[in-house]
Amino acid sequence: MNYQEANLKSIFKNNPNLEQSFKQNPVPLRELIIENTPSGYPTAKLNSSYIHSRYNPKKEAEEIIKKNTPAGISCAFILGFGLGYLAEVFLQSFPGIPLIIIEPDISFFIEALSSRNMDHFLSNDSLTLFLGGKPQEIAAMLPENLPVSAVQIYRLRAVFPKDRQYYRETEAVIKAFISRKEINANTLKRFGKLWVKNLIRKIHLFSQYPGVSVLKNLFSKLPVIIVAAGPSTDKTLPLISALAERAVIIAVDTALKPLTEFGLEPDFIIIVDPQYWNTKYLEWVNLQNSFFIAEPATNPRIFRLLNINGFFSGSLFPLGKYFESVIGEKGTLGAGGSVTTTAWDFARFLGCSPIYLAGMDLGFPAVQTHCKNTALENIWYSTSSRQKPAELYSFLSLNSASPFYDYSFSGNKILTDRRMFIYKNWFENKFLEYGETATFILTKEGLKLKNIETIEPEQLLKLPVIRDTINKKLTVIRKTYFQFREKSGKEKQLYHAIENLEKDLTAIEKLAEEGISRTLELKSAVNKRRGIKNILDELNRIDSLILSLNSRDIAGFLLQNIVDDINRAGLSKKTDKILDNSLLLYRQLMKSSQYHRKLLRSISR
To answer: Phi, psi (5° rounding) for residue 344?
Structure first.
């Protein structure tokens, strides 16, 4: 067996999908000149240029990794495989740290495998290979639990010129993924407890209301208009009543009041924000026939404000998933951080096509933050004063997330920000992933996106009138809703699950308390240099018991930011720091268990 065959065998062991891909799509080999070096490690020449050192490519890689790796590195990307030296050195230097290699040229990669024995690192479980795909597909390949507190991107400079644009787009995708993860982490830090509190406060409703799963593909091939609250919505609203005769209407909660001001009641309202202030968008609206679609962690006040029927989507969090395992799955909707991303995925879930997006500007056209008559605007004016005028709130909204200028579909500059760019990347990836779902943006004022075209609202007036068809389907949905409410009857199972969860969390709390005690004993034992092994064995036992409990993910949900902070600071080799981190984790785990139990007790009595 030659080097190439042995290396491919190692790759296919952990990546069987690549084996099938290579068999189905034979790759023509590129001529790569392999040369020996004085060090004994081979180098390679491509188009008369060396891609590694001519003398010692392994030492060169060691120097690059040593010089460019940050303290506490959490994961790494290597752009350009070469002969694998960067990957080999990284995996040897940082065992257990995830490494993603991105190589656009499969023929180059396969030819490189013939240069030397690489099976000792190509079979490493920490290694992920992305070969030959489009840059936009990388985000879908990356695991959601990939740690991004300290990320390093290594670039094999010698191969950049031949695929320069590819690597630029790849870096943009990676940075967008990291940015989204960072924003999600900050959101968890800000709203984690609120999500848990909201879900528990209305857990009985979660069991009584049907899930969106019963709506899947009910509006197959029917057009839909999603109404967001961006400034360009003002152009669409005067036509909205006529357009509602020709398409399903889905409104995000922030756009509800402007819609009703034009006399239109949407077919569906999407609500995902957990905050009390977000419920202000639902005040002073008179709805009769709409359905709400709510994420389970939304504020319970929505049920007092909306006297309409509705459906829950599946929970995104461990606590909600635990309850769904008892009462039945609700149906998962995609979440890109914005209510409009959830609305788009709901439209896709319904089977609608084409999807038309109104007011999804992802920026601030003409330096405006939203369309007219939103509740936000009313709050600004009603709470303004001489020292805090409404313009101050607008200024803060425009400047709260690192604003910068980019280009709109019309070619003009538009102010956007870091948060909006996360949504932009989410949409672009989804448009690519679900290319069969035609999507158009109404008007050209918004931030320009790839893989999508614009259309003026007036063009939609040419669509056939289908309101009768839509209403018949809504009648079927209403019947399905009432049938579920009559037969739901899972309160006993639900409260039995609550009791079991309380017991589990009590066990975690006691184990965490014991972990704190043992860690303090270990600190003392380390100073005295005796009794260390017995205490370590006890701590291993405690950790094993915690990991064996079903509620470990639920209690651990509120600890993610602590873990990220520890990783960001770097994994210390100092014993005192390691023990301090252990104490911090045990204490936070105990507090999280206590917080969950307190809320659960309030509804179980």
So the answer is: -65, -45
Would you say residue 190 lies in a domain? no
247 in a domain, yes or no? yes
Task: For residue 359, give the amino acid letter.
Answer: G
Let me know whether 344 and 299 are in one domain: yes
Place of tokens 């579920």: 484
Domain co-membership, 218 together with 262: yes
Written as one string, the DSSP assignment of 211-277 is: BGGGGTTTTTT--EEEE--STTHHHHGGGHHHHHTTSEEEEEGGGHHHHHHTT---SEEEE----TG
Q: Are residues 501 and 480 in the same domain?
A: no
Number of neighbours of residue 545 by Cβ within 10 angstroms: 16
**CA distance between the termini of the chain:** 69
Q: pLDDT tens digits, residue range 80-89?
A: 999 999 999 9
Residues 458 and 585 occupy one common structural domain:
no
Nearest of 123, 113, 117, 118 to residue 4 by alpha carbon: 113
511 shares its domain with 589: yes
Report the sign of the C-alpha dihedral through residues 257, 259, 262, 265, in that order. Answer: negative
Q: Find residue 77's DSSP bridge partners.
A: 100, 153
| Count of domains forming the chain | 3
Contact 222, 469 (CB under 8 A): yes
- The distance between the two most distant Cα atoms of the chain, rounded to a whole number of Å, is 84
Domain boundary among 487, 506, 531: 487
Q: Do 114 and 62 belong together in one domain?
A: yes
Q: How far, in Å, CA of 176 to CA of 139, rounded?
A: 9
Non-local (6+) Cβ contacts of 345 within 8 A are 333, 334, 335, 430
**Token pair of 594, please?**
């206590």
* Domain extent for 537: 491-604
Q: 546 Cβ partners below 8 Å, 6+ apart?
A: 508, 511, 512, 515, 552, 589
Q: Are 128 and 100 in contact (CB under 8 A)?
A: yes
Peptide bond into 258 cis (omega under 30): no
Q: Which residues contact 337 (CB under 8 A, 6 or more apart)?
A: 180, 183, 184, 187, 419, 422, 423, 426
74 in a structural domain: yes
Q: What would the two tokens of residue 482 be?
A: 């009432």
Note the pLDDT tens digit of each residue in 129-176: 998 888 878 887 888 778 887 899 999 988 888 888 999 989 988 888
Q: Is the pLDDT score of 511 beyond 60? A: yes
We report the CATH number of the domain holding residue 126 as: 3.40.50
Q: What is the pLDDT of residue 570?
A: 58
Residues 35, 127, single domain; the answer is yes
Name the one residue in this structure whose structure tokens are 């252990």. 582
Q: Which is nearest to 170 in space by CA: 125, 130, 126?
A: 130
Torsion of CA 102, 103, 104, 108, to 10 degrees: -170
* Listed residues 450, 466, 487: the one ending a domain: 487
Residues 6+ apart with CB under 8 A from 296: 198, 199, 202, 206, 312, 313, 314, 315, 320, 330
SS3 313: coil
User: What is the H or E stretch that residue 547 is in?
Assistant: helix 532-548
Look up residue 116 and give its DSSP letter.
S
In-domain check, residue 244: yes
Domain shared by 155 and 235, yes or no = no
In Å, how far are 167, 208, 463, 482, 497 from 487, measured between CA atoms?
55, 9, 39, 9, 19
* pTM score: 0.82
Question: Which secondary-structure segment (H or E) carries 77?
Answer: strand 75-79
